[in-house]
Amino acid sequence: MYNAWFSAMHKSVNRPAYQIYGKTRREAMWRIISVVAVARRNMDSGWPRPFFAGTVITWTDSIIACGWDFAATILREQMKEPASRCIPVTVRAGRLADKNRRIAGGFPAYPSASEILAHECGHTAQARRLSWLYLPKGAVFTLWREGNGWLHQFENEASEQGQFGGIVIGSVDAHLLHRLESRADD
Predict the structure, then answer these.
(1) Domain spans of the chain, in order of start
(2) Are 186 and 180 within 8 A, CB to CB?
(3) C-alpha closest to that of 95 among 146, 149, 164
(4) Closest CA to 67 of 14, 30, 108
(5) For position 69, what pLDDT does the model report?
(6) pTM, entire model
(7) Over the stretch 82-111, which tens digit does the pLDDT of each residue have?
(8) Peptide bond into 50 cis (omega under 30)
(9) 113-130 and 134-141 helices, crossing angle to 10°
(10) pLDDT 10s digits, 56-66
């Protein structure tokens, strides 16, 4: 009930930049998740980090918020190497921030934006499972990031389980497309 109510409220205020397919490894069915872009989450917004500028956050089981710059980066990555429900993007080596683990697995030290979105898809399943408890639990345990021990399990689970299955065809906002086209002309 909470997820449906909060998602509807959020969507009435902010239109999605696009919709994506997301799920976790444990889920059988893909879900459609709205990626909502707002200027205060842009890297150069002037808002304080880590609360707004440059952050990507899962609000509910069907809402992920980010900056327009991040939304555009995802779109550019997906134009070059599209994800699909048959070949989803996952967090390589199961961690976003563990450079040694990523390099040992033969992956780049730093995650792609699509991997970050896969991690957030992992959080949408947690939001679905925890309902209204997701936001307070997420706010507390996200502070510890990934790592070893029980304090890190919340973030570790999102990275290990999240899957990004691509952008829903026809869902990209005209404002975002215009933003990409104007940057291409520069």
Answers:
(1) 2-173
(2) no
(3) 146
(4) 14
(5) 94
(6) 0.90
(7) 999 999 999 999 999 999 999 999 999 999
(8) yes
(9) 130
(10) 999 999 999 99
